[in-house]
Every structure is written in structure tokens, then in C-alpha cells.
């Protein structure tokens, strides 16, 4: 029970913690010598890319280690008590009562056979002694606190009956139920739509203000951390490399890794491709002399690779820096790094600007695709409908939308993997006329098939795990056998060179490559056919941010070298900003807005686009406390008539938006918006929506 | 250009073999099975006596130096009969399992990939065959067509094949939606090519474990058939038949049954241990047990 | 929900019909028929022909099938070709006996297996698990006739506790069968429990390693509650299917055990019927077996739905 007086000293005190797990070669360290502390009410963000050990550290904050892992040194103190030395009964009291976990994937973390209300009540009973009606009432209060609609009703639901955002909020409520003083959140917004994510983070901020709960938020996303945490600690290869105030860390990083990380995040405000960090992070558990970042560091010196790993040292405070714990860095040249000017984001040459005069490559008119089973088609509306779109030669057209928007469906339809239920799709072949794309891939002539290629999102499932990499490249080469020329082996090697991979990797299995490398192979596979149009389906979404930048650069380079046209599908507006020429926004399978990237990102905008833009989290930008966002739920089925956005639009006109299909409004330079509102109203809604929400 | 050479992890075959070697139970199982195979093959060299020669003078002798496992009611040396006894059971079981699993896997993959009416028909037929009690089906087939080993192999294939279809189809259904299969489809590759290159290798794990599991069931089934008198015919030495023949003398001459019982049990235990080890090494979820 | 059950029942009927058709076709190909069994090898052709006409065997196979089907739908399963007794009555009697045996086995076996399986899963790789797993491995590796034989050797011959064979006939009162039921039941329990234990053990291990169980543990609730309320319901789910399959097997397929103990159940009748080419009996047993299998499947799926709320709703957004 948490009724005792808090002990003096920090609420959370991690002292030189090292965690290792037993593996074939002996002990592998995943967390090395981490020290950090947190006082009541503070928030700390733990940032790092995959494999850096942050999830292990997060679990250790509850005294939990995965099977086979051990603490090899150091300790974790919560409220003065050492977690790993605590007897089981004491540990149970602390878990949930003093420190609670909000797990990463709430869908998997909630017991599927138990109603969510019961799962919350368990915590209430164990840590606060509440049962029966009192427990029910308190559970409803908690649900209301996390902004869940109809709390009493939701108590009786099962986890699978809730949406992703609702599940996550239930998990938060469950964690708060024990009145903990510290919350540990492990990637709390992964897998959530960008609008839902913004809502959840806003909720977390609200909770912190209202309840004074301290938080450790683990994330790979700098934007998320900026939005919710005062302080940040950056992890790399199991060690902390920097620790300090979030804003200061972002503005003036003191470690080359942090600097590189910040520079590789695409930004809405700054156009151009982000810089890429050379190399890849070391494998977890590998033991390197000196600084683990040395192999990738531009500022490396001899002293960096000799001796032990550099310690996290307190830096002399900056005059304008906020007071507090101070700023720590593990770089031997920290002061120099801090003094470096911000990395100039090279407005990477995006190839010659593709204007309206460029010839059209693929043309879609009134295309509809219906996913529903035949029985259900008599009512409602098709999954995707009314698509009028031109893809011009040599451009990168971005297709933007949240999950369920139909963007993948559309791409697959163009590739011939789904049949359109209406409309025309044609490939313009110049003098050779047009080719109908409404046929399935199997029925298209090979000459047509090779011209459109897909690259997939999930590197794990896009390559056959039982076949070596070169096989994945050889097969399309064989199928689209360009006559004679060089033997297959040489052409495979050439493809690997083109995407910047070592030729030796051709003989490896996909499981032996990193995520970024696998994605490059996927791109090479698409290139093997010699396509005109590449449909890139969320190709960077699953990659670490530093790897993402290098893949984006690769794509752009290939475009200028080979004149490839891209249909670039993404939900991430910042990525779109950096790579696209034109943008098309989809909501529930209908187009809302199409235009040049500059025009779309400066306004006026469709209300949905506006909502997406407002939800983007920029690293280094802290949302004002006044803004209170409702936590939106993504919808699943398009309405039968009228505008697809009618149910969520803050400016919906009753009587019009729910029955009449909105017209296309032309703004300048080919920018079109599909809305009932007039353009000048849309241009001014930017200010309006913010006022509405604040009231 | 960045050189990004990651440490080369061992290939799958070596990984599997390493995992198998690390498990004492799996190795024991494999050794037992191998031993049985060797004995069955080398029986003519190993057996001290003829397995079928009657000897009225030496009936029902308890184990002694001249007859290490004793003799049965016809004076035949039990050790020799036991050494020979596995030949029929092993050859029939292995061929039946290979056929059942091979065909079943092929049909299962095809149904999972093509879906549509083919899948529906296949599943209806599979369900219908699975509904018939296996022993009844086997008895009927064997009575209709005789106890020829070929018949038994075909009968077992008919009775056990559908179960394999179901299991492999379920595994293939997981593989079919994966992007690399989609990529092959988008290239316009034919069904056979996709099955062979993309789907097959990725369900191989499941198929191998099915094979090991089913092999043990088939051995049990065939020995039960022989026990009931529907399998091997006297005077063929066969373990099931031996237990049946000597059952009436259990009280007075238990050794006549013990040797074949030990032989049979060790073979099946070995198969099951090997199957367990294989499943663990390959990471296959064996969560679908079931009798017969 | 009722629509779902109705649809499943319809499918079940189709499956049973297909199965019965298959068996009928296979059985039709039986060489030599009942007449030669009854009259012996030296029967004259005239006698054979007469007997065949009397038994209705001279009609076309399709006619016979239709007759049988229509009869079955009226509850009349025909008469045995061997002794002219009503097939329905005879099979019914045997079924009653087999159900007794099955009932005892299920009660013994399932309760034992549930406990042992969970224990094995929770104490993975420690001595309770090693003991239980080894025993189940042996249990499922021995053929039923071996287990039966060993049991007889131990508990009938060496320690005269139970009778080695059942002497009561098929129409014996249930009470008469009870003393003889234990050895066959134990034999069946060994095999059945082994499969269930292994299945449950794997399931428990998987579930205990799952994310929601870890989350439950990190909430600070007691380990007992974590196992009972969070882990077990999910762990039991896959086991339902195995249990259902085993029940179906107990009703339709325990030929070997019944043969060893001479227990007057359906299994023993099967052997006799096949031996005698008694078509109506064979067909009826096949239909009975198929029906049991299909119904057990349905019951398992319904029970799974009761335990797993996720299966109850047809389509939900994830």
C-alpha cells in the first residue's frame, strides 16, 4: 500500500546498472553501467533505436528481467528500496503500487479472456483495498480520467472489443489504479495512428499535471519524447551517451550520436532529405573497446578507441540552460560538439522539379475497389471510391493517410493484385498508346508487369527467409529476362552495388541482414525488373530513424539516375515533406486533397489534412499546455453518402456534408481540395480549429 | 560507400543440428530409431536362429544361453523372431508415412494457396474422411483388398493423409499472405513455382515434425492391426502378431510377450523423442496432439 | 449465434452423409459376402442365390443404399445379415456398454490429465515436469494392446485384483460390467491422458510466457491469481479440441482394448461385423462414429467460444 511517507532522495535511482543475458558465447551485456535518477513529478524520456537496450532498462525499473537475463552490477532503487533485492511479497507491493508499467502493445498486454473492468479492479483490490461497488465506481473514475467514452459500459467489455487507442488508455488507467508515484511507459504510442498518438500524449501530459505522477517514457521517436518529457536520456549500445533537458539536448546536442539522431529526423518545417548516419549500431552484447560509437563518429580521435567506455560526465552549465540535474555527456569532446552549429539540413537536390507539363504515366479515373464480401455490398459504400489521380513521369507522388485509408489497397490495385470494382486505370505508353491496368497481374503481358513494381513495408516478411538474398534478385531477373547482356550473377552484383550493399551479402539469408539492409534488397528486387513506376508501400516506416534517412536518399538517387517514378505511400507527413513532389491525401478510401508538396504543407487545407498536420510531433517542439486534444478514434467504414470525413470534421455542415458529394475546389497551381467549404474559409480554419479545441 | 558486414550467423541446417545435439532426449530418440533401422536391415546377420523354423522339442523354454529370449509354443527362437519382427512394421510404416505426409503436404499447400472452390472441396473431403473412425476404415479396406503390404500402405495413406492436409494447410495459410509470396504473384509466377520455392520451404519445418509424429502413430496402428489378425500373417515374425499369439500363455510363459513388447515400445518411444526434439529445434508448435 | 449452430449442424450432416457414402462404397467392394460366411464354402449356387434374394442382396447397390438411408431416417437401421437381429437394437446395446467405459475413462483421464498437465507446465524442466513428461511419453508410445497386456499381467495374473477378460455378454446389466471395467479403463486412460498432458503442458508454457501474463505479474497481483485467472483460461483453449477428439475416439475406435478384454462394446462388434461382412452393422457403426466425431468437434468449438470471448464476435476491427 502506498500510504507511507516517501523516503528522502530521488524517487527513482538507477545506480550503475548492468544487465546481461546468457548466450552461447558467454554473457552478453545489453545494459552497461546506466545511472539516472528522477524526482517526484518529473518526466524523463529514454530515447534510442532498436537494440540499444531501452526496453530491457524499462522492465528493470520494475525489477523485471526477461528469462535468462541477470543483473551483473548496480541496482535500481525506487523510493529508497532496491528492487532486485526485495523479497517477493515486497516486490509485489511495489509493482503497481509504487511503480507501474504501461506496456507497449496494449492489445497483447491485456488478458483476452477477462473483461477490462475486472483487470483494473484487480489492481484496486490489491493496492488500495477496494472491492465491490467502491471498486467499480473508482474504476469508472479512472476510465473517465483517461478520457474513455462511456466508462461504465466499457468496464464490461473485452479487450478485443476496443480499438487500439482505447486499449492503450485502458492500460494507462490500469497502471494508474494503484496510485503509483512512478509510471514507466514502454513505447506507449507505437502502432497508433498519428492523430490518436497526439491525443494519448496530450492525455499523459494532463495526467502528469493533475496527479503529479513521475514518468519514464521509453521511445525511439524524438517527437514523442519532446512532447511529453522535460528531460531526456539518450541510449546507444546499452549505455547512456547523453542526459539533460530535452530542449537543450535537441538544440545543442553534446554527443555526436545525439547530433546525428536529431539531424536524421525529417522535419515539417525544413524541407529536404535529412542527413544519414554512416554505419549501423553494434549488435546488442558486443563488447567494443572505448566508445561504442567510435566506428561511426566523424569526430573520432585516438583516445576514443582506447581504454574503457567514456563515462557520463557533468558538463559545465550553460548560462541560459535551466537549472536542475544539469547536462551530462559521454563524449570526450562534448564541449566541442555542443559548440558546433546546428547541422545544416542540405536541401538535398530533389532532381529537376517536375511540373504540370510532365507527361502522365499512370492515370486513374473514378476507380473504386471493394473489399467487402459479396453479401455486404448492397449497403454502405466500397472500401475505395471515386479516385481521380494522375501520376506523372519522373515525380514522387506521396499517398498519405492513416491505416484503413485504403492507400495500400490502391497501390495493390495498380500493381494488379486487387481487382478494381469500377473505373479505369491506364498506363500511358507515349506513342505506343495505353495499356489497361485493370487486369490482374497474372493476366498482364510480362512487358507490362515489369513496368510496375512494389516494394513492401515489413522487411521481415518481404523476403523469403529460406532463400539467400541473391535468389530474391535472380528470380525477377529471370522472369523479366532482358535479353542476353550479362550473366545473372553479374547482374545481381550490379543490383547490390546500385543499392549500396556489399556484394558478399548476396550469399546470406535475410535473417542475417539488418532491417535497413533487407529494405535495400527489397528495393533492388523492384529495380531488377527495370520498372517505370515503383510503388513504395510504407518502405521506411518500420526502420530506425537513422536508417530511414539513408534509404530515403537511396530512393531519391535512384530516381534521378534512372528516371523512376514513385508512388510513395506513407502515414508520416514529415517523411513525405522531405521526399515528395506532390501529395495526395486519402481518408477512408476517398481523395481529399491533391497538390504540390509546398502548396499542401502551407495551406489552405482540407480539414482532415489540417488535423494530420496538427498532430505531427516535431522534436524540440513542446505543445502548449492550453491545447487539449480529444483522443480521436479511427473509423473503419466510409459513410454511404456525402463527404467521408463528415463524422469527424469540426466544420461539417449538416444537411450538406452528409448527403452531397463534395466538389473539387481548385487552389493555385494544380492544388485541389475536395470540400463543401469555400477556399477562403479553409484557409482561415487553421486559426479557427485551435480556438475551438481550446474552448 | 559504407561497409556493413554483419557477423555471419550459422546457417539453418547447422543451427538445427546444433539444437538437436544439445538435447539429450532428442539424441537418445534418434539413436534408438537408428538402432532399430540397423537391426531390421541386418537381422539376417544378427539372428542366431531361423525365425520361422518350428522345433517341437524346444517349446516354451525360458531364456537360456542357447535361446537368449527363450522359445515360443512352436519352439521358435524368440530373439530371432524379435530381431526380424521389425522389418515388416518398419518398412510399411515408413513408406506409409512418407506417402501420407508427402501427398498430404502437397495437397495442403495447394489448397491454401489457391483457396476458392478447390479449398472448399478438399476440406469437405478431408472432414468426411477424418470423421470415419480410423480403425474401422482400416479394417474395412484391409478386408476388402487383403493384407498385402502395399494395401496397408495405401490404406494408411488414405486414413492419415487428411490429417496432414489439415495441419499443413493451416501452416501454409500463415505463409501465403506474406509479402514475398505476393511479390512472386505480382511477377506472374506460376502456381507450381510459387509452391516449390516460396511456400514449400517455409512449411518444411511443420512437415518434418508431422512426419516424425505420424511415423510413431503409424507404427502403433500397424502393430495393432497385426495384433488383431488383420496385418501380418503367421508364420511371419511380427511384433504385434507375436503378442497376440502368445497372449494365452501370459501366465505361464511371460517371456514370450516381453521381448516383442520391449522392441515395439523402444521404437515408438524413440520416434516420439526424436519428434519432440525436432519440434523444439525447429521451433514448431506441437500444439495439436490427438489420439490415432 | 443460433445461426452459427444451425450452419454447423448442416455442415455436420453433410459430413456424416459423405462419410457414410464413402463407407458404403468401400464396403460394397467386399469380396465374398455374407452368404458364403453363413452357408459355408460348400454351399450350392442355388442356396446362395436363394439366401441372397432373401437378404435382399441381389438388388443394385444404389437401391440398397437408398433403402438403408430412408430406413435410417426413420430410425430403422436394418437387420443384421448374420442373425437377423435389429441392427439398431444391437448397436444400441453395445453403445451403452462402450459409453459406460468411455464415461469412466473420461472422468478418470481428463481430471488426471488436467492436473498433471498444468503442473508439468508450471514446473517446466524441474522434477515434477520431468517425471510427468517421461511418464506421458511412455504412455503414448506403447500400443494399447501392450498396455492392456501389461496391466493384465500385473493386476490380473500376478496380483489377482481384476478379471482378465469380461465374461458378461452384451446384454449384461450395467452393474455386472462394473467390476470388469477397471482394467480396460485404466488402459485407455493411460493413452488418452498422455496426449492431453502433453498438449496442456505446451499450452501452459506458451501462455505463461505471453505478454499479458507478464503484464499481470507486473501489476503486483498474487502468483496464484495470475495462473488461475489470467493464464489458465487461455491455456485450456487448445486442449478442448484434443479432449473432444479423444472422446470421439473412445466412442468409435477402441477396438483393440475391447478385443483384448473381450468387452462387449461397439469395438468388439466392429471386428465381428467386418469379419462377417455384415454390411448394415458396419455402416451403422460408421455413421455412429462419424456423428460422434462431428458432434464432439462442434461441442469443442462451442466450448472454445464460451472460454474465449474473441471467438464470439464475428468481425471486429483490431
Overview of this structure, please?
The complex is a heterotrimer of chains A (about 700), B (about 290) and C (about 325). Chain A is built from 24 helices and 24 strands. Among the domains of chain A are: about 240-345, no CATH class; about 360-585, P-loop containing nucleotide triphosphate hydrolases (Rossmann fold, 3-Layer(aba) Sandwich), CATH 3.40.50; about 605-695, no CATH class. Chain A has an eight-stranded mixed β-sheet with strand order 6-7-8-3-9-10-12-11, sandwiched between helices. Chain A has an eight-stranded mixed β-sheet with strand order 18-19-20-15-21-22-24-23, sandwiched between helices. In chain A, strands 2-1-4-5 form a four-stranded antiparallel β-sheet, with helices on one face. With about 700 residues, chain A is α/β, with parallel strands linked by helices. With about 290 residues, chain B is an all-alpha fold. Chain B has a single domain (about 5-45, about 70-285), classed as MetI-like fold (Orthogonal Bundle). Chain B contains ten helices and no strands. The radius of gyration of chain B is 23 Å and the shape is elongated. By secondary structure, chain C is mainly alpha-helical. Chain C contains 14 helices and no strands. Chain C has helices at about 1-30, 35-40, 45-55, 60-75, 85-120, 125-140, 145-160, 175, 180-210, 210-215, 225-250, 255-260, 265-275, 280-305. In chain C, helix 1 (about 1-30) packs antiparallel against helix 14 (about 280-305). The longest helix of chain C is centred in the first third of the chain and has 36 residues, at about 85-120. In chain C, about 45% of the residues are buried. The model of chain C is unreliable at about 315-318 (pLDDT under 50). Classes of the chains: A alpha/beta (about 700), B mainly alpha (about 290), C mainly alpha (about 325). At the B-C interface, helix 4, helix 5, helix 8, helix 9 and helix 10 of B face helix 1, helix 6, helix 7, helix 9 and helix 11 of C.
Amino acid at each position: 500500500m502506498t500510504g507511507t511517507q516517501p523516503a528522502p532522495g530521488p524517487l527513482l535511482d538507477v545506480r550503475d546498472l548492468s544487465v546481461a543475458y546468457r548466450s552461447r558465447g558467454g554473457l552478453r551485456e545489453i545494459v552497461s553501467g546506466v545511472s539516472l535518477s528522477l524526482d517526484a513529478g518529473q518526466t524523463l524520456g529514454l530515447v534510442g533505436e532498436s537494440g540499444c537496450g531501452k526496453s530491457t532498462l524499462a522492465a528493470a525499473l520494475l525489477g523485471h528481467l526477461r528469462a535468462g537475463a541477470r543483473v551483473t552490477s548496480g541496482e535500481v532503487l525506487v523510493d529508497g528500496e532496491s528492487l532486485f533485492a526485495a523479497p517477493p511479497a515486497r516486490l509485489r507491493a511495489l509493482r503497481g503500487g509504487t511503480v507501474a508499467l504501461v506496456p507497449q502493445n496494449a492489445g497483447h498486454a491485456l488478458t483476452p479472456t477477462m473483461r477490462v473492468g475486472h483487470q483494473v479492479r484487480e489492481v484496486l483490490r490489491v493496492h488500495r483495498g477496494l472491492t465491490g461497488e467502491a471498486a467499480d465506481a473508482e474504476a469508472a473514475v479512472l476510465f473517465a480520467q483517461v478520457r474513455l467514452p462511456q466508462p461504465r459500459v466499457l468496464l464490461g467489455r473485452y479487450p478485443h472489443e476496443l480499438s487500439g487507442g482505447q486499449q492503450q488508455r485502458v492500460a494507462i488507467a490500469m497502471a494508474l489504479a494503484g496510485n503509483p508515484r512512478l509510471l514507466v511507459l514502454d513505447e506507449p504510442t507505437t502502432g497508433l495512428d498519428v492523430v490518436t498518438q497526439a491525443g494519448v500524449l496530450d492525455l499523459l501530459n494532463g495526467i502528469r499535471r493533475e496527479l503529479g505522477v513521475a514518468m519514464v517514457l521509453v521511445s525511439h521517436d524524438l517527437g514523442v519524447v519532446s512532447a511529453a518529457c522535460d528531460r531526456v536520456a539518450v541510449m546507444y549500445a546499452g549505455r547512456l551517451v547523453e542526459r539533460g533537458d530535452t530542449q537543450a539536448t535537441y538544440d545543442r546536442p553534446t554527443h555526436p550520436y545525439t547530433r546525428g539522431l536529431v539531424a536524421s529526423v525529417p522535419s515539417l518545417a525544413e524541407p529536404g532529405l535529412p542527413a544519414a548516419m554512416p554505419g549501423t549500431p553494434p549488435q546488442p552484447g558486443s563488447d567494443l573497446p572505448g566508445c561504442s560509437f567510435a566506428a561511426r563518429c566523424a569526430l573520432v580521435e585516438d583516445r576514443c578507441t582506447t581504454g574503457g567506455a567514456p563515462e557520463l560526465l557533468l558538463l559545465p552549465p550553460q548560462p541560459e540552460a535551466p537549472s536542475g540535474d544539469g547536462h551530462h555527456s559521454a563524449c570526450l569532446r562534448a564541449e566541442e560538439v555542443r559548440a558546433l552549429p546546428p547541422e545544416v539540413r542540405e536541401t538535398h537536390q530533389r532532381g529537376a522539379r517536375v511540373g504540370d507539363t510532365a507527361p502522365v504515366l499512370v492515370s486513374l479515373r473514378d476507380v473504386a475497389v471493394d473489399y467487402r464480401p459479396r453479401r455486404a455490398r448492397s449497403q454502405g459504400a466500397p472500401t475505395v471510391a471515386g479516385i481521380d489521380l494522375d501520376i506523372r513521369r519522373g515525380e514522387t507522388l506521396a499517398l498519405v493517410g492513416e491505416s484503413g485509408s485504403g492507400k495500400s489497397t490502391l497501390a495493390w490495385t495498380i500493381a494488379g493484385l486487387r481487382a478494381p470494382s469500377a473505373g479505369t486505370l491506364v498506363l500511358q505508353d507515349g506513342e505506343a498508346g495505353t495499356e489497361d491496368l485493370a487486369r490482374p497481374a497474372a493476366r498482364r503481358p510480362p512487358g507490362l508487369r515489369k513496368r510496375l513494381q512494389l516494394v513492401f513495408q515489413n522487411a521481415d516478411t518481404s523476403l523469403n527467409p529460406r532463400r539467400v538474398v541473391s535468389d530474391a534478385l535472380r528470380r525477377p531477373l529471370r522472369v523479366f529476362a532482358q535479353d542476353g547482356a550479362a550473366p545473372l550473377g553479374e547482374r545481381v552484383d550490379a543490383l547490390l552495388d546500385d543499392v549500396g550493399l556489399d556484394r558478399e551479402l548476396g550469399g546470406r539469408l535475410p535473417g542475417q541482414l539488418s532491417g535497413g539492409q533487407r529494405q535495400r534488397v527489397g528495393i533492388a528486387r523492384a529495380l531488377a525488373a527495370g520498372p517505370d513506376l515503383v510503388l513504395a508501400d510504407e518502405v521506411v516506416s518500420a526502420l530506425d530513424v537513422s536508417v530511414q534517412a539513408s534509404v530515403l536518399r537511396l530512393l531519391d538517387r535512384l530516381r534521378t539516375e534512372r528516371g523512376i517514378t514513385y508512388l510513395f505511400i506513407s502515414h508520416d507527413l514529415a517523411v513525405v515533406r522531405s521526399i515528395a513532389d506532390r501529395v495526395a491525401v486519402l481518408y477512408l478510401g476517398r481523395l481529399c486533397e491533391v497538390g504540390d508538396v509546398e502548396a499542401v504543407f502551407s495551406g489552405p487545407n482540407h480539414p482532415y489534412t489540417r488535423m494530420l498536420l496538427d498532430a505531427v510531433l516535431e522534436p524540440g517542439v513542446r505543445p502548449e499546455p492550453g491545447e487539449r486534444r480529444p483522443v480521436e478514434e479511427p473509423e473503419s467504414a466510409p459513410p454511404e453518402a456525402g463527404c467521408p470525413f463528415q463524422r469527424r470534421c469540426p466544420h461539417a455542415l449538416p444537411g450538406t456534408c452528409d448527403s452531397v458529394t463534395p466538389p473539387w475546389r481548385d487552389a493555385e497551381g494544380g492544388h485541389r481540395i475536395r470540400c463543401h467549404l469555400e477556399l477562403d474559409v479553409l484557409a482561415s480554419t487553421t486559426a479557427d480549429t485551435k480556438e475551438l479545441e481550446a474552448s | 560507400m559504407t561497409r556493413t558486414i554483419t557477423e555471419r550467423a550459422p546457417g539453418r541446417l547447422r543451427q538445427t543440428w546444433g539444437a538437436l545435439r544439445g538435447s539429450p532426449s532428442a539424441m537418445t530418440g534418434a539413436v534408438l530409431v537408428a538402432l532399430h533401422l540397423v537391426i531390421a536391415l541386418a537381422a539376417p546377420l544378427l539372428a542366431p536362429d531361423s525365425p520361422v523354423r518350428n522345433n517341437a522339442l524346444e517349446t516354451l523354454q525360458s531364456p537360456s544361453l542357447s535361446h537368449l529370449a527363450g522359445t515360443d509354443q512352436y519352439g521358435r527362437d524368440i530373439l530371432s523372431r524379435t530381431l526380424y519382427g521389425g522389418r515388416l512394421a518398419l518398412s510399411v510404416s515408413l513408406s506409409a508415412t512418407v506417402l501420407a505426409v508427402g501427398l498430404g503436404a502437397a495437397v495442403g499447400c495447394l489448397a491454401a494457396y489457391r483457396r476458392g472452390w478447390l479449398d472448399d472441396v478438399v476440406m469437405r473431403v478431408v472432414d468426411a474422411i477424418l470423421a470415419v473412425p480410423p480403425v474401422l476404415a482400416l479394417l474395412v479396406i484391409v478386408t476388402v483388398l487383403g493384407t498385402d503390404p502395399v494395401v496397408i500402405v495405401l490404406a494408411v495413406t488414405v486414413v492419415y493423409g487428411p490429417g496432414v492436409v489439415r495441419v499443413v494447410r493451416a501452416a501454409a495459410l500463415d505463409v501465403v499472405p506474406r509479402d514475398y509470396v505476393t511479390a512472386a504473384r505480382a511477377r506472374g509466377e506460376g502456381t507450381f513455382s510459387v509452391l516449390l520455392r516460396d511456400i514449400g520451404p517455409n512449411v518444411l519445418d511443420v512437415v518434418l515434425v508431422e512426419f516424425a509424429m505420424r511415423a510413431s502413430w503409424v507404427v502403433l496402428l500397424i502393430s495393432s492391426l497385426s495384433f488383431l489378425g488383420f496385418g501380418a500373417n503367421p508364420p511371419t515374425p511380427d511384433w504385434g502378431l507375436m503378442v497376440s499369439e502368445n497372449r494365452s500363455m501370459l501366465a505361464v510363459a511371460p517371456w514370450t510377450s516381453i521381448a516383442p513388447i520391449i522392441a515395439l515400445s523402444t521404437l515408438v518411444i524413440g520416434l516420439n523423442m526424436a519428434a519432440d526434439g525436432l519440434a523444439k529445434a525447429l521451433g514448431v508448435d506441437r500444439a495439436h496432439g490427438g489420439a490415432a | 449465434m443460433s445461426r452459427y449452430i444451425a450452419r454447423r449442424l448442416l455442415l455436420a450432416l453433410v459430413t456424416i452423409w459423405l462419410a457414410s457414402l464413402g463407407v458404403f462404397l468401400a464396403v460394397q467392394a467386399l469380396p465374398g459376402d455374407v452368404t458364403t460366411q453363413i452357408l459355408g464354402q460348400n454351399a450350392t449356387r442355388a442356396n446362395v442365390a436363394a439366401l441372397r434374394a432373401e437378404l435382399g442382396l441381389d438388388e443394385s447397390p444404389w437401391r440398397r443404399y437408398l433403402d438403408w438411408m430412408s430406413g435410417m431416417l426413420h430410425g430403422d437401421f436394418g437387420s443384421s445379415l448374420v442373425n437377423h437381429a435389429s441392427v439398431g437394437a444391437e448397436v444400441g446395446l453395445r453403445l451403452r456398454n462402450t459409453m459406460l467405459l468411455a464415461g469412466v475413462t473420461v472422468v478418470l483421464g481428463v481430471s488426471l490429465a488436467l492436473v498433471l498437465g498444468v503442473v508439468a507446465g508450471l514446473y517446466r524442466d524441474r522434477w515434477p515436469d520431468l517425471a510427468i513428461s517421461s511418464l506421458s511419453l511412455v504412455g503414448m508410445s506403447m500400443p494399447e494392446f501392450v498396455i492392456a497386456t501389461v496391466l493384465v499381467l500385473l493386476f490380473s495374473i500376478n496380483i489377482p485384483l481384476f478379471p482378465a477378460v469380461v465374461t458378461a455378454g452384451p446384454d449384461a446389466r450395467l452393474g455386472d460390467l462394473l467390476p470388469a471395467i477397471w482394467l480396460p479403463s485404466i488402459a485407455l486412460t493411460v493413452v488418452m491422458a498422455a496426449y492431453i498432458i502433453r498438449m496442456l503442458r505446451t499450452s501452459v508454457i506458451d501462455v505463461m510466457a505471453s505478454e499479458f501474463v507478464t503484464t499481470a505479474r507486473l501489476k503486483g497481483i498474487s502468483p496464484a491469481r495470475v495462473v488461475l485467472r489470467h493464464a489458465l483460461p487461455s491455456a485450456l483453449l487448445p486442449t478442448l479440441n484434443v479432449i473432444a477428439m479423444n472422446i470421439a475416439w473412445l466412442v468409435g475406435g477402441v477396438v483393440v482394448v475391447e478385443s483384448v478384454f473381450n468387452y462387449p462394446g461397439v469395438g468388439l462388434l466392429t471386428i465381428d461385423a467386418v469379419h462377417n461382412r455384415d454390411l448394415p452393422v458396419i455402416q451403422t457403426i460408421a455413421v455412429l462414429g462419424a456423428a460422434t466425431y462431428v458432434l464432439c468437434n462442434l461441442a469443442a468449438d462451442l466450448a472454445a467460444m464460451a472460454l474465449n470471448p474473441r471467438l464470439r464476435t464475428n468481425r471486429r476491427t483490431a
